[in-house]
């Protein structure tokens, strides 16, 4: 008699699509993945700087993705042991007493709430906000809710609960409204000093504490699939939802980054460095963001410090279009390697995609320095662009180190900029950290998180024992001084612009 297979289901609610993955709990391997829509999901911008999405569209995309992976895998609903959810961070979903959305979701890239967060930071004071929230209220979920309160009072007065995008998908799955400490922290609703909802900020904005959904652990049975959702999705009623995490904390989980000194990095259109801190701390200039990591508890401090660089892959793509349009990215990387470390004096400051938080919200633009028409070529410019991106990462990582983070190991997926040997070697060379590249993604990480929360795995170590390590890049000791000299020159160029 063959034993039944246990599967773990993970959803990743992004702003461009919703992806679903089914993981074989025993082998740890992903057996099927799908995402919808196949073209980028629409984002409504009624006014400049606004960005909204229909929360119910996430549900429809989740249904389509799930239907495809169940068909492709041949898995049965009763074989799914648990469900995990990853989601785009910092969004605001407002639901009424009927648990239906009262307005479109205000998503992470919507900037209308900036003045509300800045005013709160000024009125409440930097010390109060940073020591309790670990951040400025900024443009996060609480500030977005303050905008709704002031500008749409008729909607605000009907709100039963506020939630993040992942909370809403869980609500549709289970019919139960709840949230997590990690989620509340990313919305600026969590007080790390008092270890409870940030009442001082709630009072400042005039929010009732009733608006906050029940708090459940990140890893645990949070709720179960309802009869109605089971009929819609073809799942088994009672299947537990056992994990929930924002996209960057979940990306770190996917890469088994859970302990102090570990770093998860991505380098797509924008770049993110997400490091784990073992003590409650913050950057006094609020140049990086600090949230509760997925494994943070009252007894074990695990904070995720998030650095975002806007102009990462977008600079590399610009260089490709405008400097090396007739070759592919792999050939472009080979070309860059022909130039020496430091690009023979050429420096590129990569901040050409708007204001950068790491620069205290200054907008320096992108600029090229040290160019000599008599000796520099395409190779120098291409290398200088990749070096400039790495140096911007390291500049932010220095802030993390000032907060007490010891950076020893960087985990990343082998994708985007991490496909470039030059980029990888430069990052290892300047940071002194070992880089490990893995084969994983957010929906697979959410599925394994569900396995941890459901007790299918006894620990994260067991859950990620089968995580496939593709490559290890050690710092080049022989070139360490050359990398550091190039970085020092870059920092001097940046300093002249600030």
Classify the helix fraction into a percent range: 25-40%
Q: Give me the Rg, rounded.
A: 23 Å
| Quaternary assembly | single chain
If helices are DSSP runs of H or I spanning 4 or more residues, what is the number of helices? 17
| Outline | globular
Sheet/helix structural class: alpha+beta
Low-confidence stretches: none
* Beta-strand percent range: 15-25%
Strand order of the largest sheet: 17-18-16-15-21-22-23
From the N-terminal CA to the C-terminal CA, the straight-line distance is 70 Å
Sheet bearing the most strands, described? Answer: 7 strands, mixed
Q: How confident is the prediction overall: mean pLDDT?
A: 95
Total strands: the figure is 23
Which secondary structure elements does this structure contain, and how are they paired or packed?
Elements: E1 7-13, E2 18-24, E3 30-36, E4 52-53, H1 55-73, E5 80-87, E6 93-95, E7 105-106, H2 114-124, H3 126-133, H4 141-151, H5 153-156, E8 161-163, H6 165-174, E9 178-179, H7 181-186, E10 190-191, E11 196-197, H8 199-205, E12 214-215, E13 219-224, H9 227-233, E14 240-246, H10 247-254, E15 262-267, E16 271-277, E17 289-292, E18 303-309, H11 313-322, H12 329-336, E19 347-351, E20 365-369, H13 378-402, E21 409-413, H14 421-431, E22 434-439, H15 442-453, H16 460-463, E23 468-473, H17 480-497
Parallel strand pairs: 1-5, 5-14, 9-12, 15-21, 21-22
Antiparallel strand pairs: 1-2, 2-3, 4-7, 6-8, 10-11, 13-14, 15-16, 16-18, 17-18, 19-20, 22-23
Quick structural gist:
Helix content is 36%, strand content 22%. The chain contains 17 helices and 23 strands. The chain has helices at residues 55-73, 114-124, 126-133, 141-151, 153-156, 165-174, 181-186, 199-205, 227-233, 247-254, 313-322, 329-336, 378-402, 421-431, 442-453, 460-463, 480-497, and strands at residues 7-13, 18-24, 30-36, 52-53, 80-87, 93-95, 105-106, 161-163, 178-179, 190-191, 196-197, 214-215, 219-224, 240-246, 262-267, 271-277, 289-292, 303-309, 347-351, 365-369, 409-413, 434-439, 468-473.
């Amino acid at each position: 008699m063959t034993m039944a297979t246990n599967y773990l289901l993970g959803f990743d609610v992004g702003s461009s699509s919703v992806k679903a993955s089914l993981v074989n709990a025993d082998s740890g391997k992903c057996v099927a993945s799908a995402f919808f829509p196949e073209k980028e999901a629409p984002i409504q911008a009624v006014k400049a700087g606004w960005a909204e999405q229909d929360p119910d569209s996430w549900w429809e995309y989740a249904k389509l993705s799930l239907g495809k992976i169940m068909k492709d895998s041949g898995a049965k609903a009763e074989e799914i042991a648990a469900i995990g959810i990853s989601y785009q961070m910092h969004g605001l979903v407002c639901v009424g007493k009927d648990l239906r959305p009262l307005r479109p979701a205000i998503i992470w890239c919507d900037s209308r709430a900036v003045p509300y967060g800045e005013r709160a930071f000024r009125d409440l004071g930097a010390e109060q906000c940073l020591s309790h929230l670990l951040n400025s209220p900024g443009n996060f979920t609480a500030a977005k809710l303050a905008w709704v309160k002031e500008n749409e009072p008729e909607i605000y007065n009907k709100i039963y609960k506020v939630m993040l995008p992942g909370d809403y998908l869980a609500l549709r799955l289970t019919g139960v409204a709840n949230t997590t400490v990690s989620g509340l922290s990313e919305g600026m609703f969590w007080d790390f000093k008092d270890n409870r909802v940030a009442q001082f900020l709630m009072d400042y904005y005039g929010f009732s504490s009733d608006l906050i959904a029940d708090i459940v652990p990140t890893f645990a049975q949070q709720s179960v699939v309802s009869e109605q959702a089971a009929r819609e999705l073809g799942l088994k009623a009672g299947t537990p939802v056992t994990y929930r995490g924002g996209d960057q904390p979940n990306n770190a989980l996917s890469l088994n980054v859970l302990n102090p000194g570990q770093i998860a990095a991505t380098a797509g259109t924008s770049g993110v460095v997400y490091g784990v801190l073992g003590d409650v701390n913050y950057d006094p200039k609020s140049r990086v963001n600090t949230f509760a990591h997925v494994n943070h508890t009252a007894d074990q401090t695990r904070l995720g410090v998030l650095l975002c660089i806007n102009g990462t892959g977008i600079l590399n793509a610009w260089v490709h279009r405008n400097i090396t349009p007739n070759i592919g990215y792999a050939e472009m990387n080979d070309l860059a390697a022909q130039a020496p470390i430091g690009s023979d004096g050429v420096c590129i400051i990569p901040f050409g995609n708007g204001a950068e938080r790491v620069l205290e919200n200054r907008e320096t633009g992108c600029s090229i320095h040290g160019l000599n028409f008599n000796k520099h070529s395409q190779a120098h410019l291409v290398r200088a662009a990749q070096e400039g991106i790495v140096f911007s990462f390291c500049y932010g990582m220095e802030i993390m180190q000032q907060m007490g983070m010891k950076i020893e190991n960087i985990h990343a997926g082998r994708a985007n900029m991490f496909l470039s040997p030059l980029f990888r070697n430069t990052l290892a060379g300047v940071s002194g950290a070992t880089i490990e590249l893995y084969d994983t993604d957010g929906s697979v990480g959410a599925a394994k998180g569900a396995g941890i929360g459901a007790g299918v795995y006894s620990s994260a170590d067991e859950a990620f024992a089968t995580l496939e390590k593709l490559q290890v890049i050690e710092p080049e000791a022989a070139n360490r001084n050359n990398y550091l000299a190039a970085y020092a020159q870059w920092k001097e160029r940046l300093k002249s612009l600030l």
